[in-house]
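The protein record quoted in full:
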Amino acid sequence: MKAQEIMTKQVFDVMESDNIYQAYSKFHQHHIHQLLVVTVDSKLCGIVSDRDILRLWAEIANSDRAFPQVGSIMKRDVLTCSPDDTVGDIARCMLEMRIHAVPVIDSKRRPLGIITNTDLLRYGLKNFNFMSSYQALPAML
């Protein structure tokens, strides 16, 4: 199976110059855990997680500091994949690198979607019939 078949197509993004409060608002509004950071011409340049924001939020919560820009905390070295990469390869990389999301990009680095742990779990439940094993779990405890 290919990335394009399981990816979440609706992605949310911010720009490096947005402040972390703007990013936090998107996390809260859309109930997501990752935001793609894009340039003015919509090319991927980083990723920021809700954990990144919360970690910094704790530092500045009771201070007079202004909200810093997303660019100051985003991860710039982002593992990405193409729509034609296989789900197995993507899952393997996510496990090895201990990451929770992989943006799916086109040849010009424009985001097409994102594959998250939730997408992989959904794929596993659908394709490997884990649900029947899960339903039997309480009886085994």
Remarks:
- Strands lie at 13-15, 34-38, 44-49, 101-105, 111-116.
- Helices lie at 3-6, 20-30, 50-60, 87-97, 117-127, 130-140.
